[in-house]
Amino acid sequence: MSHVFPRHTKANPPIAVAGQGCYIFDSTGKKYFDGSGGAAVSCLGHGDPDVTEAIKGQIDKIAFAHTGFFTSEPAEELADMLTRHAPEGLDRVYFVSGGSEAMEAALKLARQYYLEKGDTKRHRVIARRQSYHGNTLGALATGGNLWRREPFAPMMIQTSHIAPCYEYRGREDGETAFEYGQRVANELEAEIQRLGPENVMAFVAEPVVGATAGAVPPVEGYFKRIREICTAHGVLLILDEVMCGMGRTGSLFACEQDGVTADILCIAKGLGAGYQPIGAMLCSHDIYEAIENGSGFFQHGHTYIGHPTACAAALAVLKKLTGEIGQRVTPMGEKLDASLRDTFGQHEYVGDIRGCGLFRGIEIVEDRSTKQPFDPKRGINKALKRAAFEAGLACYPMGGTIDGVQGDHILLAPPFIMTGQQIDEITDKLSTAFRAVF
Ligand code: PLP
């Protein structure tokens, strides 16, 4: 009997024993194409020798030094490099161990920022109904995923949720994409007015929505309007790039493509590329200065923040993402998109194929003309995951109720090192899975 407390107590997952390039091997020798990098983590694939060497080199020097006493060379170098590449104005980096921790830190930093400025009222957070920001209590309260949130609702901070920017389902007949984006962005203005601007601390959003909807990019102009509204009301804009950041969408930070910057920006997953657990929160000079000129102490911190070995791994990853490998994402993403459209574009049960870079989603519907989803009891997304896994493809399935609509989605987030031939491998294996399920 296993003594591991697994994610799913009734599942019996295979044992992963090796990884090489885009593949994972289990203990029976079966080979899986890592089509979603777990959950958009393994951007460099498995067994990258440079990252492995960087980790070994750091452990040989010093594996860990507590940030209450020391800083470290890799943390300093990684923060320098991240801020050099980050959107304008984000010039401080707070390292954590993952995405939820980054979001939790962001929420607390936002609150402390206002307190340091003598504004004790601002505490309300607004987010979107189609979102996932992590599983710790603050991050969970912020996310819009009802089934994850509901059991813990009595324990949560107050948040409110506005409409997502979800063109496939939200854009009305006769409305342009731009008009649609402005309309849903203006829900933020209305919600701020409803709550009273003096009470609102932050708006939180994923630039490209990942886990709840399968790679949903915003329409043009949406985030510009969001930024305008936040600035006008002194509401901090927290962008969650935990899944869509670190080159996944074709630029190092997804928000670069919207021409906006955040006050606080969170990254994780691809930052350590799975080689080490690490996340980070980048913040603006203004926010850092408020702390520095105020109490001088951010009332937060975990034992493993700024872990030197994790930072050394992330530094090696970042050097690759800002080089030739990062430049592969846009062209390879276009090829993947074309291949998905060729193979599934006319499929009776495929409602939408979307995304950017190597972050692609397929939405499954029972009726393409009405966009009617399948009955959730059929568990279509889980069935597709199982069938794809059987065929040797690991991809990320999602289902969830968004604005009362149950959706089935598949997320693909393959390693950036993937070849053209491997794109065919993904679509072939996914086709096998579709044939098995439908
Ligand atoms: N934010 C987003 C957008 C995510 O997709 C996730 C994880 O899937 C998180 C936050 C939480 O990150 P972690 O699982 O590393 O805590």
UniProtKB/TrEMBL annotation:
UniProt cofactor(s):
pyridoxal 5'-phosphate
- Keywords noted in UniProt: Aminotransferase, Pyridoxal phosphate, Transferase
What the entry lists under InterPro entries is as follows:
Aminotrans_3, Aminotrans_3_PPA_site, PyrdxlP-dep_Trfase, PyrdxlP-dep_Trfase_major, PyrdxlP-dep_Trfase_small
Give GO cellular component annotations, separated by semicolons. cytosol
Q: Care to name a GO molecular-function term for this sequence?
A: pyridoxal phosphate binding
Q: PROSITE patterns, alphabetically?
A: AA_TRANSFER_CLASS_3, PROKAR_LIPOPROTEIN
**Family as reported in the entry's similarity comment:** Belongs to the class-III pyridoxal-phosphate-dependent aminotransferase family.
State what protein this is by name.
Answer: Adenosylmethionine-8-amino-7-oxononanoate aminotransferase
